[in-house]
Amino acid sequence: MDHEQASALLPGYIDQELGLSEALEFERHLAGCPLCQEAFAQHRDVSAQLRQPGLRVDAPKELAMRIEAALPRAPSPWEKLAGWFGARGGRAPSAWAPFGAVGAMGAMALSVVALSVSLGLYLAVPSSEARLTQELVDTHIRSLQVNHLSDVISTDRHTVKPWFNGKLDFAPPVVDLAQEGYPLVGGRLDYVDGRTVAVMVYRYKLHPINLYVWPGSDAGAQPRIREQQGYHVAHWNAQGMNYWAITDAGNSELRNFVAQLRAHPAS
Amino acid sequence: MADRLLVQRFETLVLPHMNSAFNVARWLTRNDQDAQDVVQEAYLRAFRFFEGFRGEDARTWLLAIVRNTFYTWHQQNHGHAAETTTFEEDVHGHEAGAGDRDDGPEAMLVRSESVKRVHTALRSLRLEYREVVVLRELEDMSYKEIATIVGIPIGTVMSRIARGRQQLAELLGPAKQEH
User: Which residue range is the domain that position A44 belongs to?
Assistant: First the structure.
């Protein structure tokens, strides 16, 4: 990547809009280019200054009131409910008439919706799993890249666990595996699959292991390990939580890590 | 009946983005009163078009309408002089609150020197850069969303953000060293 290309990509890099390979190429150029380093520092500083509170002001209350008043009369909750059923019944009377009661229609409509949803879910299983794996590998790489491995750095699970309090709508299980050769080094929040998830960071020798946890049951209890872009990814389910572990350590090291984790119940 | 449903959907999907709409309008008009007028008009338009809204991202959809409303308003109010030059002001002569007709944003903001400086710099930015910078930094929108709102390719979004940040860096840079 030459200087001109790198300059053009600078904002994308700051705003994390580049693809992974583009970002890596940009960083390679950045490392050896004082001009780009200066521009990067400047622009990042400008960005940070613009994001301080005080530049953004909420809409005045009277504006909200004027706009709401201008809408066709805002209905009360009861009217909303009545309106909802009423509209259901009233919208296409001729087509629905042979089926009789509104309740039957609703039930039918619901079951059609349910069927198409479950069919959709069923069909989506392999591709969503692959997509999620890719997303997690990307997140893992990014966490190593931008020096953002942990937000709370501690080898003590009694520090890491409370740190998550109030940041998540679930309590992630935090286990200490230092005795087993996998010391806990910290935790952070990440955004995966459209939700905020807990990440516990462990190490095996010099290899970081990111353990992603969030509520759900996308997998079986038996861990499945696969390889992607040189990383090993394990996925399993336990006590209503999805677990994903990702590392550049070897397959057997990851397998052992997962086994230890499962053998040590969280407290 | 259908109207009621529509109003409900509108209330759930579109009304919650009023702060974003106001913020964007405020930085486009650079005046709180005008911003209120633009937002109110935008909401009326949004409601008129709402039946055609097909569940894409409501905030992006609304902000595109806010922006269009602003441009219509701007052309009506600034007539032939509506070119971007109207928006270029001498930053150094622009003291916050000092005899300024556009009392809105300034009046609200006296929180800190730093905010004041950034505020003045952002105000002086040309409209085409200001709008992308505001959408990106204050509204935290992705390049793709900004491209949709402004109606330009993503590459242009990126280059305008770069120009905007560069100009802001130049405006903010020297003043910083005085401290």
Answer: 3-50
**H-assigned helices in B14-142:** 18-29, 32-49, 58-78, 103-108, 113-124, 127-133
Residue B18 near chain A (CB below 8 Å):
yes
Q: Is the ipTM of this complex over 0.90?
A: no
Q: Are residues A38 and A160 in the same domain?
A: no
d(CA A34, CA A131): 37
**Nearest to residue A201, comparing CAs of A170, A168, A175, A180?**
A175
Distance from the B83 Cα atom to the nearest Cα atom in chain A, whole angstroms: 25
Cβ–Cβ below 8 Å for A57 and B166: no
Contacts of A18 in chain B (CB under 8 A): none
CB < 8 Å to A10, chain B:
162
How many independent structural domains does chain A possess? 2
Q: What residues have CB less than 8 Å from B35, skipping those under 6 apart?
A: B22, B25, B26, B28, B29, B104
Query: pLDDT tens digit string along B105-156?
Result: 554 444 577 888 899 999 999 999 999 999 999 999 999 999 999 999 999 9
What's the pTM value of the predicted model, to 2 decimals? 0.53
d(CA A6, CA A22): 10
pLDDT averaged over consecutive 10-residue blocks of chain A (267 residues)?
92 93 93 94 94 87 87 57 45 38 50 52 56 82 68 74 82 87 86 85 88 88 86 90 91 91 78
Closest by CA position to A163, among listed A180, A151, A178: A151
Residues in chain B closer than 8 A to A84 (CB atoms): 5
Q: What are the b/e assignments for A209-239, b being 16+ CB within 10 Å?
A: bbbbbbeeebbeeebeeeeeeebbbbbbbbe
Tell me how far apart the alpha carbons of residues A84 and B23 are, in angstroms, rounded to a whole number.
Answer: 34
- Burial level of A22, CB count in 10 A (0-12/13-18/19+)? middle
Q: Do A50 and B118 touch (CB under 8 A)?
A: yes
* B11, B40, B142: residue with CB nearest A63: B40
Q: Which of B17, B22, B28, B123 to mutate to test the interface with A (most CBs of A within 10 A)?
A: B22
